[in-house]
From TrEMBL:
It comes from Psychrobacter alimentarius. Keywords: Signal. This is Protein yceI. The lineage of its organism: Bacteria, Pseudomonadati, Pseudomonadota, Gammaproteobacteria, Moraxellales. It comes from the Bacteria. Residues 1-32 form the signal peptide. Residues 34-202 form the Lipid/polyisoprenoid-binding YceI-like domain. Gene3D superfamilies: Lipid/polyisoprenoid-binding, YceI-like. PANTHER family: PERIPLASMIC PROTEIN (PTHR34406:SF2), PROTEIN YCEI (PTHR34406).
Length: 204
């Protein structure tokens, strides 16, 4: 066909075809892969000052949810469901107290949820690095924004699972009174709670 076309016309068609192929590649690569949260490697741990003497710690386990991630397009999304009945502090009496209506009130609010709204990236040695994740935390029947700081995030191929796995560690500090949990703040237990979130998910 080309022998009947001018050189300029041929170059035009080649340029147009190249542009279409590039556009198709970009569109195809912008679809984030879906990963299912691994409950055995995903948890939320908390630390709160105890009358300025020591630090009480505990955690929530067996989380479920979904992760979406595309490092080429800098796209990320994560949703977590946190079963509050999984709370463990190492002290059964303290666990019961925290699960009561004075604090988490798990009979009325058995689940907490986190839904990301925006992921922040920066280039690190020519590789995209997750730096922060903004989102909404629903706890105790109330929803407020939080920002998680990524201390690390990476993906690798698991030879055990025979699939790609992504995960990382995140930290934040929340004011528990914003979620209506204010017991004993007037007696000296701080409203500030430090959270450490470990997330790991396997590609579907």
């Amino acid at each position: 066909m080309y022998r009947f076309l001018s050189l300029s016309t041929i170059r035009f068609y080649h340029k147009a075809l190249t542009g279409l192929l590039l556009s198709a590649w970009v569109v195809g690569s912008s679809h984030a892969a879906i990963y299912h949260i691994d409950p055995t490697h995903t948890n939320v741990r908390f630390a709160i000052d105890h009358f300025k003497t020591s630090t009480n710690t505990g955690g929530f386990y067996n989380l479920t949810g979904q992760l979406e991630y595309d490092p080429v397009a800098n796209i990320g999304n994560v949703s977590l469901i946190i079963p509050l009945n999984s709370l463990m502090t190492g002290d059964k009496a303290f666990d019961i107290a925290l699960k009561s209506a004075d604090f988490f009130d798990i009979e009325k609010f058995p689940l907490a949820r986190f839904e990301s709204t925006k992921w922040h990236f920066q280039r690190d040695k020519n590789r995209p690095a997750v730096t922060k994740v903004d989102g909404m935390l629903t706890l105790h029947g109330q929803t407020n924004p939080v920002t998680l700081t990524a201390t690390k995030f990476n993906c690798y191929f698991s030879y055990i699972l025979k699939k790609s796995v992504c995960g990382g560690d995140f930290t934040t500090t929340i004011d528990r009174t914003k979620w209506g949990i204010s017991k004993y703040t007037l007696l000296g237990i701080t409203e500030k709670v430090d959270l450490t979130i470990q997330i790991e998910a396997a590609k579907q």
